[in-house]
Design brief:
4 copies of one chain form a homotetramer. Chain A contains 11 helices and 14 strands. In chain A, strands 7-8-9-10-11-12-13-14 form an 8-stranded parallel beta barrel, surrounded by 6 helices. A 4-stranded antiparallel sheet of chain A has the order 2-3-1-4. In chain A, strands 5-6 form a two-stranded antiparallel ribbon. Chain A has 332 residues and is an alpha/beta fold. Chain A starts with a strand and ends with a helix. About 2% of the residues of chain A have low confidence. In chain A, helix 3 packs parallel to helix 4.
C-alpha cells in the first residue's frame, strides 16, 4: 500500500504517522517525497478505508506489483547512489573494470592504472570465485580483498568484489565498497537478507535463467532487510545459441527502467563470453540506456586464470571507453 | 575449397580456369577479387594438390566452415547491395519502416509519407501474413503487393514484403523489391532454393530458435541456388523471459559480422514485442553495428490489425530515426 | 461456438440445421455425437441468443480455446484413426520404425522385415530430407517414395514419409499412407493448408521451439482446411542442455491429451539425439500415455547417411518393442 | 587418476599405498573394489609412470571427466545408500512424499499416515522455504524440523527437508535424515562444501537452467568435501513452454545413469507444476529408470500454503503409487 501525504505535511506529522503505522504492525518505508510505502506481514488484510482516514493521508494507492520497494510505482524518481564524487544511476556513465580474479598485486595495479587513466570510476576483482568445478582456482579470499582495498585506495577507485556466502560479508563490507552477488546466488535468499543489514551498495547480477520479475524480487529481499542501495546488473541469460556463452539480454535495460527506479548496469564480458564481442556490446548496452558497464580486463588476457576467453586487453579497454562515451554523449 | 589466383591473372585466363573447373564437375563462384570458391557435390574427394597444379592458382585454401558462399573466409570484404541510390551493407544506415499488415491505401500512404520525410529508404508491409491461428487475418495477398508497389513508386521508396511459399514468389518478385522470409520459414529449404532463382534481394529473418550457424546455412541455400543478395535479420529469439515477446539477441550482430560478409539488420519490433522498448533497442542495434533496422509503425497503432502491441506511432518513429542517426554518426 | 443438439434430433433435422447455419455464413463441423462446432469468419459477432433459438439446439457453449476443431472441448471423445486393421489413438500401441533416410532397397527391406517381425504397424523412411546444409544428402525424392510403397506393400506395413513443400504432396499422397510434417515446417501455413485438402493422415511434428498451443493451432490449420486425421508428435525441444540434441518433453503427452482429442506419438530418436537414450525414453513415452512411438533404426547405424548418432540397431529395436509393450500392458 | 590394484592386494598393503599417496600430497578415495581415485591439487602434474611403479598398482587410468568422484568411470558399480531397511539407488523404488511446506502437526501427520499406508519410505516437508517473494510464507524453521522428526519417528519414515544456508545445517542434520538442496542453491558452493562435512545423505536438485555436467560438478563439491552420499534429483528446467511451470527433462535420468554411479530420483510435482500431470509423469519417470520419485501431496491441496497448483490429494497419491509400482515391476 502506498500513502500519498498531503502537500503541506511537516516533518513531525510525518514521523507521527509513521509511528502510528508501525504500532499497527506495519513496516513503513519513506520512498519518494511525500510517499510512504506500507508493507504488511503475510495475510494482512486491512481495508483501504482505514488508511484513508489517517491524518495527513491524501491518497491511498494499492501496490500492484509483487516487488514493492523496488517498484517504479512506489518511487517514481530514479535512485541515484552517491559514493564520494561518483553518482550511480544518474546521468554519469559508471564504468567498472578489472580482472575476473585477483591474481597478484602487479596484475591488479596494472588494471587499476589503466582503469583510472581511462576515467573508469571503479575497480573490480574477484577474491571469492564461484567455480563450477571444485578443482578450479577458488580465489585468494580475504587476502585478495585487502589487496583490492589497498590498490583501490592508491588509485582513488571505488572497489567491487563478489561475496558468495554470509560468512564473507563482514570482511567484504570492511575492505570493499560495493559487494557483488553473482548470477548463481541471485536467489540465495539467506544471503540477500544478510546483505540488507549492511550499508554498502550491492551489485545484484541477474541469474542466468531468471526473469526480470525474479531479479526485482531478489532486490526486494535486500531492500526489505534494510539496504536500499541495490544496483541491478544484466549479464546475459542461457539460450539456445551456442556461439556465445550467454545471450546479453539488452531488452532488460529499458524494460527494467520502466519497472524499477534502481540503477542498472550491463556486463558485456559475461553477457557474450567472447572477447571480440565485448566492445560492440558495451556500445549497445550504453545505447540501450544502461547506467554503467562492467568489463573484465587483464594485462595479458590469455594468461587470465579465469574467464580468459571473454577478457579484453588494455588497448581494447581504452578503445571501449572512448567509444561508449561517444555514444553516451549523443543520447538525449 | 578457395583458390587464390596469382596477382596478375587476366580476365581471359580466369575464365579459362573457371571453365576447366566446371568441366571437372565443380560449381565455381567468384567471391572476392582474385578468389574463386570451388564447391563440389556430395562426397567429392579431390586432392588439394590437384588444384595447386592448375594454371594461375597461387594458393589453395580449405574452407573450414559449413557455410561457404556466406562465409567471411570466402569473401573477406563486406557485401554491399546496391539498389538505385541506396547501398545496403556499407556505411549508410538502411531504415525499413511500415505497417505489419497492409490494410488500406490510406494507411500505407500515411506510413510511406512519414518514412520518406524521415529519410527511411524502404517501406515494408505484409500482404501474406503467417499467423499462428487460421482464424486471424491472413493478409490482402496480391492486391496488397500491388498497392505496395504503387505507394513505393509514388514516394520513391524501396519496397519489402514477405513471401511464405514458392507459389507467391513470382508475383512478389514482380511487384516488390526485397522479398522477406519470416522466422517460421527460415528452414523451409524448398522455398529458400526457389528464392535462389530470382534476382531480388532476400531479407532472411532468423528463426526464433535458430543458431547463427543455422541462419548462415539457410543463407547458403539461397546463395548456392544462385542469388547472392541476402540480407540477414536478427529479430529476437525465444528465451525464458516472459515480459518481452522475444529476446532481441544483439550479440548476433557483431558475431555474424565476424562469420559472414552479408549485410545484417535488426528488427526491434519483433525483437521486443513491446512498444515502449522499440526505440531504445533500435539505438542499441545500431550501436552494436547493425547495417540497418526494420520497424513496424502505424498511423494508429492500437488499431493495427496485427502486432499492435509492438507497433509504434509516427511521432515515436520520427524520434527513433533522429536518435539512431545520432548514434550512427559517432560510430568509428 | 458449440451447439449441443437435443438428444432425440434425427438425421434430417440435423442436416437442415447445418444447412441453415451455412447459409448464415458459418462453417459447420460435426464433432462428437450431437455436437456441432460453428466457426465464423474474422469479426463474426453473433449473439449467443440467436443460436439458442434455432430448432433442436439444446445448449450453446462458447469455445474458449483458440484451436476449435482440435480442442477436447469441441470433441470430448478421443479421435481414433482407422487404417485397415490398425487403429491409431485408441488402446493399441502404434509403432513406427525405419531408417532416417531411404538409402537402398536392401536397407529398407531389412528394416521392414524387422519392423514386421516385432509387430510394428508402420514403416518410416525419408525421401525428402530437410537438411540444415545444402551440401548434405537431400534424399532420393520420388524414387524413394516408390520404394517405400513397394516395400510397405510387401511387408503389410503402413508407410510414413515427410513432405517439405506443396509440390511434393501429390506424389507423396499417392505412394505413402501417412504424410509427416517436420519440426521446421510446423508453421509453414501454406503447406498445412494444402495438407487439409488430402485424405491421408498427417503426422505433425512439434517445432523445436513451439508451444503446445502453437502445435494445436497448426493442427487446426490442417483440420480447418478439411483433413481431420492429424496425429501429433512430440519430438523434443531446444533447451539449455547440450548433452542431448533435444529435450524430449514428455509433459507434452498428458498435457496435450487434456487439450485435444487427437492421437499423440513420441519420437525418442530426435527427442534425445543419443542412441543409448532411445530405449529408456521410448519406455517413458509409453508410460506417459503416448498412443505410439516413432523410432529411427538402421541395419548398420554407424553407416546411416543421416542422424547416425540417434539411430538404433535391430537388436535394440527388438528389445525396445518388448519393453514398451510390457509397460503398455500394465497401464490402467 | 584412477589406480586399479592387483587382484590379490590385501587390506594392509592397500592402506600402506594410500598413506604413501597421501604423503605425496594427494587426496585418495576408495571407489569401487580395488580402485583408488587419486585427486591432486591445482596444477598437479605428476607423470603417469610414477604411479605405475608403485607397489600393487596393476593399471593407471586417466580420469577423462571433470567430475571425478561422481563419475561412473571412477566407480562403475551403482552407489546404493542404505538407511536402516531402506536402500536408495538399487532395485527398490524409493518414494518420498509429503507437503511442500510443513504447516501443522495435523497436516503433517495426515500426510505421514497416507505415505506409510501406501508404502512410501520417506516423508518430506519444507521448514525453510526459498520463496521468490520476501512477502511469502518463509516456513516454520526449526520448529518445523522438530515436528518432522517427531512425525517421521512415529510413522517409521525417513525424513527429508531443505536447507538454504550453512547456518541451518546443524539443526537440520540433527532432526532430519536427508537434507535437500533446492534448485536455486545448486551452485551455492559454500553451502555444498559445508554439506560435505556431515554424514546425512544429500538430495541435490538440478538447477532450473543447469546442465547435467553442472549438476555433477555440484555433486562433486559435496563428495570432495567428504560426503559420498549424494542423491541427484531431476525437477524440470525452464524452457520456452508456458503451459507447464517447468519441463521435466526425463532424458536426464538415463543420461545421468551413464555418467554417474549416484542414485537419481525425479520430482514430477515441480517438473510439471500442474497437478493433473503429476501422476502420468511419475509413471514416465519410473519407466525412464529413476531410482525413486518425490511428490508433493496435501490433505486439501487447494489450501496448501505453497505450490498448491502442483500438489496432489491423497487419493491421487495412492493411485500414483499403485501405478508406478506396476511400471517398476515390468522393468527388466
Amino acid at each position: 500500500m502506498l500513502l500519498e501525504l498531503r502537500a503541506n505535511t511537516n516533518y513531525l506529522d510525518k514521523q507521527l504517522l509513521i509511528e502510528r503505522l508501525e504500532n499497527m504492525g506495519f513496516r513503513v518505508v519513506e520512498s519518494d517525497a511525500n510517499i510512504l510505502a506500507v508493507i504488511g506481514g503475510v495475510n494482512s488484510l486491512v481495508a483501504t478505508e482505514l488508511f484513508s482516514e489517517l491524518p495527513n493521508v491524501a491518497k491511498v494507492l494499492p501496490l500492484t506489483s509483487n516487488f514493492k520497494l523496488a517498484s517504479r510505482q512506489t518511487k517514481p524518481s530514479d535512485t541515484i547512489i552517491k559514493m564520494g564524487e561518483v553518482s550511480i544511476g544518474g546521468d554519469e556513465l559508471f564504468i567498472i573494470a578489472g580482472p575476473c580474479s585477483i591474481e597478484s598485486r602487479e596484475q591488479l595495479e596494472a588494471c587499476a592504472k589503466i582503469a583510472k587513466d581511462n576515467g573508469a570510476q571503479a575497480l573490480r576483482g574477484g577474491a571469492y570465485k564461484p567455480r563450477s568445478s571444485p578443482y578450479d582456482f577458488q580465489g585468494m579470499g580475504v587476502d585478495g580483498l585487502k589487496l583490492l582495498a589497498e590498490v583501490g585506495a592508491k588509485y582513488g577507485l571505488i572497489t567491487v568484489s563478489e561475496v558468495m556466502d554470509g560468512s564473507q560479508i563482514a570482511a567484504a563490507a570492511e575492505y570493499v565498497d560495493i559487494l557483488q552477488i553473482g548470477a548463481r546466488n541471485m536467489q540465495n535468499y539467506t544471503l540477500l537478507t544478510e546483505l540488507g543489514k549492511i550499508k554498502n551498495p550491492i551489485l545484484l547480477k541477474r541469474g542466468f535463467a531468471a526473469t526480470y520479475h525474479e531479479l526485482l524480487m531478489s532486490a526486494e529481499y535486500i531492500m526489505l532487510a534494510g539496504n536500499p542501495n541495490v544496483i541491478l546488473c544484466e549479464r546475459g541469460i542461457r539460450t539456445i545459441e551456442t556461439f556465445t556463452r550467454n545471450t546479453l539480454d539488452l531488452n532488460a535495460i529499458p524494460a527494467l527502467q520502466q519497472l524499477t527506479h534502481l540503477p542498472i548496469v550491463a556486463d558485456p564480458s559475461h553477457g557474450t563470453g567472447v572477447r571480440s564481442l565485448v566492445l560492440p556490446m558495451a556500445r549497445a548496452s550504453v545505447a540501450a540506456g544502461a547506467h554503467g558497464i562492467l568489463v573484465e580486463m587483464h594485462p595479458d588476457p590469455d594468461k587470465s586464470i579465469s574467464d580468459a576467453k571473454q577478457t579484453i586487453d588494455f588497448a581494447t579497454f581504452s578503445d571501449l571507453v572512448t567509444q561508449v562515451r561517444r555514444i553516451k554523449s549523443v543520447l538525449i
